[in-house]
UniProtKB/TrEMBL annotation:
Belongs to the universal stress protein A family. This is Universal stress protein. CDD domains: USP-like. PANTHER family: STRESS RESPONSE PROTEIN NHAX, UNIVERSAL STRESS PROTEIN UP12. Pfam families: Usp. Signal peptide: none annotated. It comes from Leifsonia poae. Residues 10-142, 150-285 form the UspA domain.
Length: 304
């Protein structure tokens, strides 16, 4: 089965604004489409009302956006000749327009300047917004530096969103010949550990149940053929564990409970904390992408 938006519709949308973070996102998206096929749509959003108020009638924001897109298209085509590529600009608020366009896309890609060492409410707010409300999975791309990266890390819990994340993670790993690290993290709330003596440890049955969460998810996914799934269970804050484990990963995939018309007012807390301390490319996916990996892969082979 497939989710509401068929992942083989092959359109990857990347938002650009001329910034360095947007260019990093564009490079990541273009490389991905060039390797795996599909279409790349480069979208530049221009808030005409804000531009007119800020600069007055002498400034032409449409011409500026068109110039940015022309330069970007030439650079991408120079790097990836023959890529199925379109460019467009749209009037409106960037987050709103990106979310609107995501409703018909397979993947939405945006850049961020967020890192564990850079705090501040204005850094990375757009990725947080679109990841919570988009109609497709959202890839958020930070500054990756020159770190050698391998494996796909997937955050696992007992939710439907985690199953979507695992299925998507396996599909991503199959294209890169990577392993999937299925990571489940659990921790003891402070209120339950303040008065405990050092000789008191968790009941082994509880730890076994936590481990079973990962094993059940892998079993429910079913055979993954060439992709190896490595279960990992750690006693640590979930977001911290995922950020740390993904610091050298090719990709981190997390599910978000903060998706949908009502729930999307807030991004899920773990996804939020991951994106504000991002150390690798991150894909955020909701529970409506409950596709079975093998069926999706078969569809991709037939369509591409």
């Amino acid at each position: 089965m497939t989710g509401q938006h068929d992942v083989v519709n092959r359109t990857t949308v990347v938002g650009v604004d001329g910034s360095a973070s947007a260019m990093r996102a564009l490079d990541w998206a273009a490389d991905r489409v060039a390797t795996r096929g599909g279409r790349l749509e480069i979208l530049c959003v221009v808030d005409l009302a804000f531009g007119a108020a800020l600069y007055g009638p002498r400034f032409d924001p449409v011409a500026n956006a068109s110039l940015i897109l022309t330069r970007i298209e030439a650079a991408v085509r120079g790097r990836h000749p023959g890529l199925d590529l379109t460019t467009r600009w749209s009037d409106g608020r960037p987050a709103h327009e990106l979310i609107r366009r995501s409703m018909d896309a397979a993947l939405l890609v945006v850049g961020t300047d967020k890192t564990p060492g850079r705090a501040g409410p204005r850094i990375g707010t757009l990725p947080l917004t679109v990841a919570g409300k988009a109609g497709c999975p959202v890839a958020v791309i930070p500054d990756l530096g020159h770190t050698e990266r391998h494996d796909v890390v997937v955050g696992i819990d007992a939710s439907a969103e985690a199953m979507s994340a695992l299925a998507l993670g396996v599909r991503e790993a199959s294209w890169a010949d990577d392993d999937v690290i299925a990571l489940h993290a659990w921790s003891v709330p402070p209120v339950l550990r303040r008065d405990l003596t050092p000789d008191i440890h968790p009941d082994p049955r509880f730890e076994d149940a936590e481990q079973q969460i990962v094993l059940d998810a892998i079993h429910e996914l079913g055979p993954t053929e060439a992709v190896r799934i490595v279960p990992e269970i750690v006693r640590l804050n979930a977001a911290h564990a995922l950020v740390e484990r993904a610091s050298r990963a090719r990709l981190l995939v997390v599910g978000s409970r903060g998706r949908g018309r009502i729930r999307s007012a807030m991004l899920g807390s773990v996804s939020h904390d991951v994106l504000t301390n991002i150390t690798s490319p991150v894909i955020v996916v909701g529970d409506d992408y409950d596709f079975v990996t093998n069926e999706v892969d078969d569809s991709i082979e037939e369509d591409w």
